[in-house]
Amino acid sequence: MSIGLRPHPATGGLLPWAESNEGDKFLWSTTGDNPQQWLVTIASRNGGWWHYEGGAVQFLAELCDGTLEPWTLPPVDPEVTPC
Known about the structure:
By secondary structure, the chain is α+β, with helices and mostly antiparallel strands. The chain contains one helix and four strands. It has one helix at about 55-65, and strands at about 15-20, 25-30, 40-45, 50. It has a four-stranded antiparallel beta sheet, with no helix packed on it. A hairpin with a 5-residue loop joins strand 1 (about 15-20) and strand 2. The chain starts with 13 loop residues before the first strand and ends in an 18-residue tail after the last helix. The mean pLDDT is about 80.
């Protein structure tokens, strides 16, 4: 990836788990032995990326309910997009 992180199974590599309709990628940074502690990494279709400190379910819940700062992600409208 252009952000300097390696794909899984490399130590600490990125493991994809979802993708938005717009082409944004949601991945786990597989650092450490406990998957419960892996960081969620978001790679925007526009080239931006960041780590989210919570888990995947919390990330999706906050994205859908509007409490997450979406940075470059498209907004989720629960009236139009079922979560």
